[in-house]
Amino acid sequence: MRRKLLFLLTYLSLLCTSGLRAQSDTRKQVQYLSGTDNNHTATWDFYCTGGRKSGYWTTIQVPSCWEQQGFGSYNYGRDYKTYGKNFRFADEKGMYKRQFQVPASWKGKQVYLVFEGAMTDTEVKVNGQLAGPIHQGAFYRFKYDITDKLQADKANLLEITVSKMSAEASVNNAERLADYWIFGGIFRPVYLEAYPKQFIARTAVAAKADGTFAMNVFLKGQTQAGEVQADILDATGKVVGTAKGTASAQDTVVTLRTKVNKPLQWTSETPNLYRANVTLKTNGNLAFQTSEKFGFRTIEIRRGKGIYVNGTQVKMKGINRHSWWPETGRTLNDSIHLGDVKLMKEMNMNAVRLSHYPPDAKFLEICDSLGLYVLDELAGWQKAYSTKAGEKLVKEMVEKDVNHPSIIFWSNGNEGGTNKELDDDFGKYDLSNRPVIHAHHRPGNAFNGIDTNHYEDYYSTQKILSDSLIYMPTEFLHAQDDGGAAVGLGDFWELHWKSQRSGGGFIWALVDEGIVRTDLNNIIDVNGVNAPDGVVGPHREKEGSFYAIREIFSPVHITLKELPSSFKGVVPVENRYHFTNLNQCYFQWELVKYRKPGEAFSGYTTMKKSRMASPNVAPLASGKLDLKLPKDWKTYDALLLSAYDPAKNLVYKWSWKTVANDKLLDGILTLQDKQPQPVEVTESDTTLTLKASDITVAFNKRSGKLTGVKGNSGDKLSFGNGPVLVSGNATFTGLTHRKENDGEVVEASYTGDLKSVRWKMYSTGWLSLSYEYALSGDFPFTGVSFTYPENFVLSAKWLGKGPYRVWKNRLQGVTDNVWENAYNNTQTGAAPWIYPEFKGYFADITWLEMNTVEGKFLVASPDKGLYVRMLDFYGLSGVKPHPALPIGNLSFLDAIPPIGTKLALNIDSNPQKLGPNSEPNHVSGSTKRTLYFFFGLPKTSGEQQPYTVPAKNDLF
């Protein structure tokens, strides 16, 4: 019995092995010679001809950018401006060696050596023989047939010389002299592909929204007639269509056609994918099989009307993406690609432009599966490839990327880097014949009915959109430092959304291109103002614009800023999805209580929450969200509303205070003692001093300013030198004081725009400041300022919008809560990329608790609309950082300035060109406000609820 069982197991094993071998004989086999990504590399021999670690053989990790391995010299593409045309990096080369063996089973197979990307000119030898012509062009997959050069029974020697700069001048012009970091080396994987003698080399799919399916199947080694078949499978694996064709012995391509009944269409909102299993049979036997994912979708440019996907007009909510990671440059991995796509989807974007070169294949696979419209771009940064060089690179680019449904346009170069002789080359390799566009930065270069002109301002955009062409800027709102990206985007996007001829647009850019400099102690270098252009930092640290974009681009569009007095629990909503009904989404409300000053935690406590019925609102239609709130909803501090997409990802969370500020200050602001004690008053020639509950404040009788403070701990607090009017004129004329039943009043009188200043100290130690000013005209900011030493500040906690700072033209992306930020000196777009920035303008403040080395102090206001300016900072770098700041460094403001962008017709100094919300503050009439100060930590009253942290997707 035992022998029978052993025989049976051996027989089954042989059958399985035979089956596996038979299957592998009919499929492509792959053997990596390098690693697969920046986390999984292989060690090769290496020799660098210039710069660091040059002039001797050593080893290097492949794939990699050799600068990140300590070799050669760094250069940014625009170094030619510094060094001239013959700058010193031109002759840097890297020589690679790698021994390898191929499996014995590959004998008789067709073997190719494949490079996914090498920068830039690549000469390849196998066993001392040239594999083929030197490849010129960094970002493209290329391969050599090395079948006749291999030694099947012993080790093979691979020798590669990579020249950082190309011998072809147009390749340098298009790729190497660009506005981005320039690297050298084999930066994407290298591998072998083995095929049987007859095989399918590649396919090209054209699958339309109506189910029409066509596929070009390219054959190699065909020596006898055969049958080609494509079985189309849906996501469940069910065969939903079959296309068949025959191939003669001489055929190199066979076209298959069929039609699938009512396919699930591919869009950015519905990324439905199908698989085509393709087989080649000869004499009835399976000779080769392969598989390709694709999607059914139709792209149309309707001249003068818009861009249509599957018959529906769509607008691109897009951004430009460099392939980038700070430690490894352009050598990436799947998790980086996935993370970048998720970041864009989190910002409610639906599109990405691949600037300025085609990406790793995996990035496109993720765009296919998660849903992003893609502009796949041929390199060409203001200078174009020659026709001879470009023809080969277009072919390589399209053949690699052609079957990705996410790609809706081919982009022929950037900002003048377009060789128009290449326009018709894309269609030679693309059976679906996608539209070709030109990404340009000058008027008059529209192509295929689409104007993509870069960095127009709001008002010139209006004019373009009223013309006859579709307008889709492939770069706009340049995001250097804290300017651009979401700055002005609210106005721009409403303009585009409501314009028939808009195709949307693409913000510049996703990532700050900061490289870890292995020659400079591993600092992260953004090359001055050239590369900090991202909405996120080098390691994807999120700036304030990230969250503002998320709100502006939210397809669940809610414009309600505060709850009206007549609010009955119904919120107007516009559905800005192109293909999704809001009844496919999920909604949840929460009623919350905010934490108090002095408590250990920030945030809120959710008291009640409920999922609500999703409204039936068709794509691009408007409707209402009936929250069906409980009757006691006004007894809570705030109402939160969360929207989730059909995949249960959070779209956005809105917040509204349900009560006025004075109610939110209940239990915090205590002006009366049960047994009040008189305020102590002392006076000298120059100073008036008040004291209550161990808090002392002093006023200068010659200036009217608060000049001295001691907290209830007995320690000095260096707050003072105010109030000073930040806009307008005020001349001090005198100081008076008097007793009232509940405290001591101090009044300062002025001539000019400051009409009244009234202080009052209560027996509880609280100090109020009521003031009124009157202005007429345009002003960058309005309100009053004080000073406090920045180096004494530890952290701040506040109830208001946050946790990010705002600008007049970027108020989105912040919500009401009790927030807390630790002090940092972050300048947006520069190391150490600590966000949120501590310093800046913060909106809708109810109370603010400052934590300092001298102790704490609290500022509160019962009036709405208070901005707090926190210390000294800048939004945009320059000879003189701007926008300019108010006097002082701790300001309480009623209006704050807009900020500009790096580019667009001097917008940096004229932000009003970015649209209505970027204009100066138009002020007319008087403004009144009351502030309350407590120097120390006040006692709070009221029952406190246990603190809970809301889960990210707590609905599910």
Automatic annotation (TrEMBL):
GO function terms (MF aspect): beta-galactosidase activity; carbohydrate binding
Keywords from the UniProt entry: Calcium, Glycosidase, Hydrolase, Signal
CC terms in the record's Gene Ontology section: beta-galactosidase complex
Alphabetical GO biological process terms: lactose catabolic process
InterPro entries given in the database record: Bact_Beta-galactosidase, Beta-gal/glucu_dom_sf, Gal_mutarotase_sf_dom, Galactose-bd-like_sf, GH, GH-type_carb-bd, Glyco_hydro_2, Glyco_hydro_2_AS
Assigned EC number: 3.2.1.23
Required cofactor(s): Ca(2+)
Keyword Cell cycle assigned: no
Keyword field contains Calcium: yes
Domain Glycoside hydrolase family 2 catalytic: from-to ranges: 301-518
Pfam family, one: Glyco_hydro_2_C
Domain Glycosyl hydrolases family 2 sugar binding: from-to ranges: 58-194
First and last residue of the signal peptide: 1-22
Family: Belongs to the glycosyl hydrolase 2 family.
Protein name: beta-galactosidase
